[in-house]
Specification:
Rossmann fold, 8 strands, alpha/beta
């Protein structure tokens, strides 16, 4: 399978070609590497498969103003990639799910799969478990400083369904992220007009997600009149959890049911 890379966008071309491109967007502290195992699975279904790393995220070095990056900044990165790909289908994980909603509202995505997605304004992501673990990072959030949660907090909130022996390798790949973007997500300041979301949406959530609880996914599904797929026995970091493939196939099966025009500037 041929590969091509740019500093931000990594693409695996589909063997047969011709499918609508799929763009994957990661969450806080991560990078395009989150989708390393998913991209070949997407391409095998006939879709050129891409994953974006937001500014200051690996493989790029951290930026000097990392703590001040906004969700709108990350959306600008994703919008540029979406235009290059030609209005792709977007799979967004965590904060990437909120960016995916923003792309759909701007008419830059043909459909969206929201995986453990951060919500827009009007739906709170705050839970007692999150408050208890994240309170110590309040200075970084308030002062727009870069931060990365401690290992114990990552294990409790994000990696709780990843096998214990595999968590350290993932933690080592996570990076400090923007306190400002995290504050915006926590306070729910990003507005996504529901009337602007006219493309198909699928919502996916683990029933043991302690970072973005299942209740948030239920509200997102109601908001967009979208189907909800609950990944039983899974947490927030789905694509590194045992059995993730079955749930990825649910997403790809749903994409296969969509009737979409192939973008004029598709790389296929």
């Amino acid at each position: 399978m041929p590969h091509s890379t740019t500093p931000l966008l990594h693409t695996i071309e589909a063997p047969a070609g011709g499918g609508v491109p799929v763009l994957c967007l990661h969450g806080l502290f991560a990078g395009a590497w989150v989708f390393d195992a998913l991209l070949p699975r997407i391409a095998a279904r006939g879709h050129p498969a891409s994953a974006l790393s937001f500014r200051g995220h690996p493989p790029a070095p951290s930026s000097a103003d990392m703590g001040r990056h906004t969700i709108a900044d990350y959306c600008d990165d994703a919008a540029d990639a979406a235009r290059r790909l030609g209005r792709p289908i977007v799979i967004g994980h965590s904060l990437g799910g909120l960016v995916a909603q923003m792309l759909v509202a701007q008419g830059l995505a043909r459909a969206a799969v929201l995986v453990s997605s951060a919500p827009p304004r009007g739906i709170s992501v705050i839970s007692p478990a999150l408050l208890a673990r994240m309170a110590r990072y309040l200075p970084a959030l308030l002062l727009s400083r870069p931060f990365k949660p401690a290992d114990a907090d990552l294990d409790a909130l994000v990696l709780n369904r990843v096998p214990a022996a595999e968590r350290a390798a993932i933690r080592d790949r996570l990076v400090a992220d923007s306190g400002r973007a995290a504050r915006e997500a926590a306070l729910g300041v990003v507005r996504v007009p529901v009337e602007s979301v006219r493309a198909p949406v699928l919502v996916v959530s683990g029933d043991d997600d302690r970072f973005v609880p299942l209740g948030v996914a239920r509200k997102l599904a109601t908001r967009y009149a979208a189907p909800l797929h609950v990944a039983a026995g899974h947490g927030h970091f789905l694509f590194a959890e045992p059995g993730w493939q079955a749930h990825a196939d649910v997403m790809l099966d749903w994409i296969a049911t969509l009737v979409l025009d192939v973008p004029e500037n598709s790389p296929a």
